[in-house]
Every structure is written in C-alpha cells, then in structure tokens.
C-alpha cells in the first residue's frame, strides 16, 4: 500500500520527464507566438463552480468528480478540467476590464474518478487556451490555427480538423423543439440515457455511442442545418479564414456541446497518425459562460483542451523521437581525500560558468569512477591525483577520442569553453 501509488495515477520518472518538458515548452512557445499568456489557477475549487460550468448533466459532474468536504465544511472539488478555473479567475481578477481580447493558456493536472485504462487516468494533464472578450470568428480561426501549429511542430502532421456550429440561444430554441418532437416519436428505441437526455439536453442524444440509438436515429436533424443568419455568417467567415491559412477541415454535423452556454463554433482535432483513434483536442465557443459564472454580461470566449497523456502516447506510437537534453559535460575523478577536497573549487568554477559537472559521492575506486563517467556520458573526465596536486594541474581526457592533456587548474574553464 505504502509503495503503491493510488489507482489511476502515474509517476513521471526522469525516463519520461524530459518528454513532458519538451511538449510543455513547445506549447508555451506556440502560445507565445500567438500572443497567449499563462494563467495558473488552484488545483481545487468550490464544487459549485464545476456544477455550473461543466454542467449538471455531464458525466464529469454526475460520476467523475473528486469532491470532498474540507475542515471548514466547504464543498471542494479537484479540478476535472481547465476552463472553469480560468474563467473564474478571469472574472475575479477583472481581466475583462483590461484591453480585450484576453488570451490565456494553461498547463494543469486534472482529476476524474474513472476506470483507468491506456490513455485514461484519474490524475491526468491538460494543455489548453481560453480567448475571452471577442465573439468574432477571427478569434475562432486563431484558436484552431494555434492547435494545428502545435501538433505540427511536435511532429503530428496528419490531422483531421472537424468543425461544427451549435447555434445560439435564438436558433437553438427552435431547433430543440424540432429535435424533441423527432425524439418523442422515437421514444421506444432510445436507450435509457437518451430518454433522459431527450428532456434535459436533447442535443446530446447525437453524441450517444449506443449502436441501437445510432441505427435508429440516422435521420436525426442537426443544429448546423437550422442555424440563424448570424450564426451562419460566423460559421462561413471561420471557414474562409481557415482556408486562407490552408488548414484542412471538414464540417462534422455530429459534434455537439450540450450545454446552454456553448454557442456557434465547436471543433475537434483527430490525429490520423497511427494508434490514435481518439480526439487529441476538443474545443468550442462558450459565449454564455462568463455571465453564468457571475461575470459581466456579453463577454464571450472560446478555448480548447489537449489531453497531454494521449498526445504523448500518439507521439510514441508514431516513433516521434524526443531528444533527451540531459548531458553532463564533465566528471571529475579524484584520487585521495586531498584531491577530493580540491575538486570542490573546480566544480564550483565549472558550474558557475554553466559547464555541467559532477564528482564521486560513493568513494569509488579510480577505475569505478572512470566507469561511472562513461555511464553518464560525460564529454570530458578531469583527473586530480597526487602529481596534479603538487603542480596545481589536472589531466583532461576527451572521452570520445581518449586524447589526454595536462593542464593548469586555473586554465581549465577557459580551455573547456573552447572545446565544448
Ligand atoms: P473521453 O470521451 O475520452 O472520456 P472527454 O470527452 O471526457 O474524453 P474532455 O472532457 O473533452 O474529454 O477532455 C479533453 C481531453 O482530455 C480529452 O480529449 C482527452 O485527451 C483528455 N482526457 C479526458 N479524460 C481523461 C482521462 N481520464 N485520462 C487522460 N486523459 C483524459
Ligand atoms: Mg470522459
């Protein structure tokens, strides 16, 4: 028990941590190219925030949240996704009062109580962006372009970008009525979940994975075929901008976002590269969310989230190599106590000059120290023994050529700077 991490969690050991650093740094770099700045929010929030923002009828809120009551009797939940906290922080810190739009990104762990399997954990990580304060389709195009460039730059090139419009409150009311009428007539063939959705959140029936529902609902009406002129214009402009950037996309009428505050654009990016049948990125416009969470009226937003574990899995399946930047320049082999003491000044000089350096911590024999130097792939080994001590020199050995020179201790840094 003590030596076993909780179910659904994973350690990221040095064998993998550099890969995480790579994708995180790449994400930061791309966000910065597009003018997005980092927002960090707490790991836990008031449970009510997620109920309101993610939505009462979703799997996340109904079954997956890590919720608890804290010692002050507050209902607290570990964040199951990134948007709610960022939007809460946007409101609380009055970022809407600054020049708009507000363009934010985050990298965060998330927590969902789910059955663990490949690419599905209880603690996982999301990279995401949120762009608030403009409802113009140019922002939608920018958000999609950012995701596409990020995937391309980490080596995933074969992407399927699917977009849809889920309308707005005006056109959705009319559509929902039509959809409900259609679903009422199909009541006898709907699965139990869909029967419930039909009344609470009819659009989510389109999302049902149950084969019987799928089979019987082939002529289900789609929102995008019933959108109003304003939504249509928005959707068309988005497509024009995407074409201008040569971003290939398809309109997928089945992409839904069931909650009321979602509006207009919804999109998904699927990697067609091997071993990734699932969505690597999902996003959409949430024009009512800021107001719903107690912020000012009419502040719209759009964002996406990328599952980091699935991103890394997909990269691995496609044999995308990430170089491990870890490298030691120098290992200092010392012979005897006095030499060991002397090595500390040299270590300090090297490290101060940003030359990475290590020495022995296990009182190894000289032979074993050389072996260790080999194992950590040091570029040079410096030897300090009795002779060297007497002359204030050291032996500098190039580990790849085995070339060896004797050099004054005071000149090592200068010499290495020309050689590394
Ligand atoms: P799924 O259908 O796989 O359960 P979801 O619809 O619940 O996904 P979102 O809420 O849209 O997923 O989260 C965005 C991304 O986060 C997903 O595309 C996925 O990559 C990742 N993700 C979601 N849940 C998990 C999890 N339990 N473990 C690892 N990654 C996850
Ligand atoms: Mg899920």
UniProtKB/TrEMBL annotation:
What Gene3D superfamilies does the record point to?
A: Anticodon-binding domain (3.40.50.800), Bira Bifunctional Protein, Domain 2 (3.30.930.10)
Query: Cellular component terms, GO, for this chain's entry?
Result: cytoplasm
This enzyme catalyses: tRNA(His) + L-histidine + ATP = L-histidyl-tRNA(His) + AMP + diphosphate + H(+)
Which GO-annotated molecular functions does the record name? ATP binding; catalytic activity, acting on a protein; histidine-tRNA ligase activity; transferase activity
Source domain of life: Bacteria
Q: Which positions does UniProt annotate for L-histidine binding?
A: 81-83, 112, 126, 130, 257, 261-262
Keyword Nucleus in record:
no
Give the UniProt record's GO annotations in the biological process aspect: histidyl-tRNA aminoacylation
User: Localized where?
Assistant: Cytoplasm
Q: Domain Aminoacyl-transfer RNA synthetases class-II family profile: where?
A: 1-325
Instruction: Tell me which EC number(s) this protein carries.
Output: 6.1.1.21
Name the UniProt key words of this record, in alphabetical order. Aminoacyl-tRNA synthetase, ATP-binding, Cytoplasm, Ligase, Nucleotide-binding, Protein biosynthesis
Query: Which CDD domains does the UniProt record give?
Result: HisRS-like_core, HisRS_anticodon
In terms of Pfam families, this protein maps to:
HGTP_anticodon, tRNA-synt_His
Q: Which HAMAP family match?
A: His_tRNA_synth
Q: Which family does it belong to?
A: Belongs to the class-II aminoacyl-tRNA synthetase family.
Task: Note the subunit structure.
Answer: Homodimer.
Q: What is this protein called?
A: Histidine--tRNA ligase
Q: Which organism is it from?
A: Romboutsia ilealis
Designated gene of the protein: hisS
